Amino acid sequence: MHDVVARPALDQRDVQLARLSADFLVEQVAGGLAGLSPTDAVLVLAINQANIVPLTRDPNARAMYGALETPAPDQLRRPVSISAIASSLGLPFETVRRRVRSLETRGICEAAAGGVIVPETFLVSPGYLQSVVGTHNGLRRLFLDAMAAGLVDELPASRFDTAGSAPVRAAVRLASDFILRTAEQLMAASGDMISAICLLGVLQASLSSKEAPPTGIPVAGLARALSAPQETVRRHTQALVERGLCLRGRGGLLISSELLASPALAGFVRANAANSQRLFAGLAERGVIDAWRAA
Q1: pTM of the predicted model, to two decimals?
Q2: Structural domain tally of the chain?
Q3: Which residues, at least 6 apart from 160, have a Cβ–Cβ distance to it below 8 Å?
Q4: DSSP letter, residue 74
Q5: How far apart are CA 5 and CA 10, in angstroms?
Q6: Could you read off the pLDDT of 108-162 as tens digits, one per residue?
């Protein structure tokens, strides 16, 4: 006879944070990034974040290039190789190479010595700016909702004087880090980018359900919520069911409380809680939260 090892119970604060985070993340997926596909959007986020790593370590540069109207100029961006991006996202090299070349033809990426950058011209384009403002607004709602629910740990003091004006680009850079960490964790569980997005959508629907247990979300409803083709969602959610990451209920796809406590999903919930607190602390340190409170 084998001993039954009890799974440690999930902290309900972590579950609440997972619900709020999933609301924010699904909104980002549905809203898109300047009309890009989810995979291309994640590639652009990853490339842009890699380009500005040296600047994020320089307090003067962080202050200079934090506002909406002041993206970092191309000459200060550090090119990143396609192999590095593929490795960081867990995507096949050839997939990333092909997609980056397509992004280059549209002016969204640009080849440079040593790799590729997201150029300043794209970062000031109307479509990108609209996405940035939307992400900033969603980020503010996420923080305020978490604060109202008593889910935010003690925050550090700001190290920057924002003069009452929120540094929108700085806030969105922190949000981009959060999104990329979440994508990495969900892909590790689900196997690929689209499956990760579908898993996120099912998680959001289940945690937001007013019924216990949740009745589930139909494939058509999930496709609408994610602004994704229904057949694509059907195919990838079938794979999630087969991998034991979600269930089929009377109303559609769902994640039960028992399934949420499984190692893969419980690990994600706990990691998300840590990532959320890291996000909030970064926003506070950068002066974003003080600016929101002063507005």
Answers
A1: 0.91
A2: 1
A3: 59, 62, 63, 66, 167, 285, 286, 287
A4: G
A5: 15
A6: 999 999 999 999 999 999 999 999 999 999 999 999 999 999 999 999 999 887 7
